Amino acid sequence: MAAPGTAPISVDIEFSSAAGGVDTHALLTGMLRAAEQISDLIFSPGRPPQVEVLGQLIPLHAPGIRNLTPDDTRRIAADLIGNNKQAISMLREQGSTDISYGMPGLARFRVNVFIQRGSCAIVMRVIPTVIPTFEQLGLPRELANVASLSDGIVLVGGARGSGKSSTLAALLDSINQQQTCHCITIEDPIEFLHSHKRATVHQRELHSDAPNFVQALRAALRQAPRVILVSELRDRETTEMVIEAAETGHVVLSSLNTVDVAKTIHRLVTLFPASEQTQVYSRLAKTLRYVVCQRLIPRQDKTGRVAAFELLKGTPRVRECLDNALPAESLQQHISQGATDGMQDFDTHILNLARAGIVDSDTALAHATNPAQLRHALEQA
């Protein structure tokens, strides 16, 4: 395969004359087979179909493949959305919509269709068909204790595309394997499919199974779950209900788009008005069990990316810090000094990856929280 971003990838795609072009199913199949470690498929007017490999966009080449027209992307979007009336309505009214799309035996996708310059563009995130394990993801061992929680909130933070959904799926699967309980997920859209193991798992997708997170959460509290997974916290009302669920004896798993643990908590609190934030800190002190954040870092051997993790555990010292709404620096200090409790900070994990030769020093510094401090530590190695 050519180096990412330097040359197109040739693919073998069969044409469907009935469709007036490339059949959408055949196109997706050909794109998925074009390279290993594809994370996204992208369709944009004025560009050929593209795949993202290790963070680089690569155009596809095949006989007859040309730059996509607005009619091409509109047709592909229509094939993906099908007769999902709510998705069609959202696309018309809000300019974008999220759906899930499956190709049995081949792949599942999280799909975002959106309007730009009056035409459709599409991004399809490839979802692994098998739920990853803790070992495959490299998750901190301390997170194995999530399966034995009786209540509380577990948050997963990270940038978009950093693997938060995979981590949430692994956490829920761990509970599913170890506990005989009822689990409900509320997702937008459903990504990983969870089968019943020891637990009974019901998965609800926004727009097809429930109109929004808030109504789905209200219903969930009447459906006798012990564990609730909310795919993302986006607003104050949803967050309020998540905290309330944790306060009333539920384990709640969710995610936010953030860069580290301190900013995850700050983002959560600032969803509320300033007059309520002190009380929110106090409620989190009682309900927050773990916050794990992740960053994907390119491997030195160019074979993919490795995840670096930062982990906060709700120890008595952390609870006191939250209860007193102490600044982020105090929270970061507890993380850095909490190794004996299973906690870890980003820079220590990145330093260990660099010392093991998994990432090079320049890449490590580029992804560090405190590059100057990490540089000093690398020089001491």
Write a short abstract of this structure.
The protein is an alpha/beta fold. The chain is 35% helix and 26% strand. The strands form 3 sheets. A 7-stranded mixed sheet has the order 1-6-5-4-9-8-7. Strands 12-11-13-14-10-15-16 form a 7-stranded mixed sheet, with helices on both faces. Strands 2-3 form a two-stranded antiparallel ribbon.
Describe this structure in words.
- By secondary structure, the protein is an alpha/beta fold.
- The protein has two domains: 9-127, 2-Layer Sandwich (Beta-Lactamase), CATH 3.30.450.90; 134-344, 3-Layer(aba) Sandwich (Rossmann fold), CATH 3.40.50.300.
- Helix content is 35%, strand content 26%.
- The protein contains 14 helices and 16 strands.
- The strands form three sheets. The chain has a seven-stranded mixed beta sheet with strand order 1-6-5-4-9-8-7. The protein has a seven-stranded mixed beta sheet with strand order 12-11-13-14-10-15-16, with helices on both faces.
- Helix 6 packs parallel to helix 7, helix 9 runs antiparallel to helix 10 (316-323) and helix 12 runs parallel beside helix 14.
- Mean pLDDT is 91; it is low at 1-6 and 15-20.
